[in-house]
Amino acid sequence: MLIIRAQRVFDGRELTGKRAVVVSGGKIVELLDDAPESGDVRDLGDVTLLPGLIDTHVHLAFDASPDPIAGLDRPGLYDRMRAHARTHLAAGVTTVRDLGDRDYLALRLANAMTDGPEILSAGAPITSVGGHCWFLGGEAEGVEGVRKAVRERADKGAHAIKMMITGGEMTPGSPSHLNQFTREEIDAAADEAHRHGLPIAGHAHGGPGIAAAVAAGFDSVEHVTFLTEDSVEPDPAIMAAMAANGVAASLTVGVLPGFTPPPRIAALLPILGESLRMLYGSGVTIVGGSDSGIGPTKPHGILTHGGDMLTMAGMTPVEILRAFTSDAARVCRVETRKGRIAPGFDADLLAVRGDPTSDHTALRNTAAVFRNGASL
53-331: what CATH class? Predict the structure, then answer.
């Protein structure tokens, strides 16, 4: 039995006033006011102990190079994915949700890896023929084709379903603002996923795609940028529907410091910021998905930089911590064992120097990481 002592303990919702966490068998047993004088006590000093972070959107198969698509065909992909997963864990991200790989490698890794974060895998994202990220192998067409694709992933043991409702920036000829599927196909994907007890995440940039995901009953929408062909048009009615139906926004957060966006995106930043503030003000649950791996500015393990964007939305440091822990756990459907420091939960813990409840950038000052009670 290990007792971990810290100056502060954030339990996934708030600072607790406790200063010690008892761990046994990879689980949290109890929280104490302070550590006892005897026993196996690890005193971490002036740190804040919080649940291990949860990144709701990663791509372990992408190598964060200038051409991550070409990297898919280089030998050693599985081993690189393992290394990418370890990078997340070293940054304090103890659970990742992989929303797009090839050949179910992330699922294979999830079942085999013992020295990395917990991996929740969706397999290849379901996309239209020639659609966004078609090269990952998830093309499907027609209502029955979409249902078959969902069933295949469920049968393989996937933890979630991912559908590319709109196009995306990584795929030429796949406009981000346009839907790739019919309303019937989108509805079928959500229905089939829920028949198999799986959450479904929808990649959607344009307003019509976001609206279709909400109407179909998707559990989360990724990106939620409200892009049009040449601008951004946030829609309060769609945001209100997301809030009313409990559809979470998994926002693309976390870039390397000093990143300069392309001119087209840079010109849209003011209105994108206003859209974020509207989304937050509408009461939508916001969680953080880094989309790590898709380019040099988004290396693996970048989630700890994600609070900068959420601050732009108006979120407080405590709300940002919830977005990366307890709220993220709920979106990923692991809320009964992840995202909280509470008895019975997995002992996935992060200790950081400073107080992230008052300054979210403290998340970058890692002091210790524990996975199932074992320290790195």
Answer: alpha beta
What DSSP state is assigned to residue 256? Answer: -
Helix ranges (H only) for 157-297 are 183-195, 207-216, 236-245, 263-281
Task: Compute and round to an integer the Cα radius of gyration of the chain.
Answer: 20
CATH topology of domain 2-51+340-375: Urease, subunit C; domain 1 (2.30.40)
**Token couple for 277:** 């503030």
Residue by residue, pLDDT tens for the chain (376 residues) are 999 999 999 999 999 999 999 999 999 999 999 999 888 999 999 999 999 999 999 999 999 999 999 999 999 999 999 999 999 999 999 999 999 999 999 999 999 999 999 999 999 999 999 999 999 999 999 999 999 999 999 999 999 999 999 999 899 999 999 999 999 999 999 999 999 999 999 999 999 999 999 999 999 999 999 999 999 999 999 999 999 999 999 999 999 998 888 888 889 999 999 999 999 999 999 999 999 999 999 999 999 999 999 999 999 999 999 999 999 999 999 999 999 999 999 999 999 999 999 999 999 999 999 999 999 9
Q: Of 295, 343, 218, whose CA–CA distance to 59 is shortest?
A: 295
Amino acid identity of 80? Answer: R
Report helix, strand or coil for 293: coil
Tokens (6 digits) for 249: 């926004």
Question: Are the C-beta atoms of residues 123 and 98 closer than 8 Å to each other?
Answer: no
Closest CA to 159 of 108, 114, 216, 87: 108
- Within the chain, which residue ranges are assigned CATH 3.20.20.140? 53-331
Give CATH 2.30.40.10 domain extents, the chain. 2-51+340-375
Q: Tell me the C-alpha distance between 171 and 310, whole Å.
A: 27
